[in-house]
Amino acid sequence: MNAVITGASKGIGKAIAERLAKEGFNIALCARNAATLEATAAHIRQLAPNVQVLALPVDMSDKQQVLSFAAKVKAAFPVVDILVNNAGLFIPGALHQEEEGLLENLMATNVYSAYHLTRQLLPAMMEQRKGHIFNLTSTASYKAYPNGGAYSITKFALLGFSKNLREELKPHNIKVTALSPGPTLTASWEGFEAPPDRLMPPEDIANVVWAAYTLAAQTVVEEIVLRPMLGDIS
């Protein structure tokens, strides 16, 4: 069994990679920071010494790097059972105050990366008539909020991508799940001063991925929304 996780050097992506490796999946990981990525890969190899770990530094905002990553994944893993499109940037701010080009940059990282990578890995999934694609959307995909700005736009777009993909892949027996966490204890919330239990642990997101994957073949969870017990943080 093989899984591909983008944005996997820390946070939610790392937690998902660790969980799937523990379950016996070979793992292909990518992230921008090579040093952090290699540290994560080494940790996963220690956790699960019997699985293959492919870790490649990739800037997911660059289409050519995404295509190159896809080619290396296909060479290593002819079949991909789970694809987790997790790569993304969180940069809050009001639309009228954002730097020029921010929307284009966030669209490339948060949406186009998932589009291009999925298109590259789909043919093998379609041929084997199985697979599960998880798109890490957000509670920001459902509700606009002050200073959501370009980030919120991209998350609405990623949810639309996931919904469309779900409809297209029904006849091919490939599952698609939009997974939308609210505030989670990741680098995006560094510096946030609040009790630790105000943020969800990334391991919870990984556990939900595994739970959705292990359902019966005829069952698919289309959308999952998770929030801290006390709700979103304003």
TrEMBL record:
Keywords: Oxidoreductase
Gene Ontology terms, MF aspect: oxidoreductase activity
One Pfam family cited in the UniProt record for this chain: adh_short
CDD domains for the chain: SDR_c
Keyword Flavoprotein assigned: no
InterPro entries per record: NAD(P)-bd_dom_sf, Sc_DH/Rdtase_CS, SDR_fam
Taxonomy, superkingdom: Bacteria
Keyword Hydrolase: no
Annotated PANTHER family: ALCOHOL DEHYDROGENASE (PTHR42901:SF1)
Family recorded in the similarity comment: Belongs to the short-chain dehydrogenases/reductases (SDR) family.
Name of the protein in question: NADP-dependent 3-hydroxy acid dehydrogenase YdfG
Organism: Chitinophaga rupis
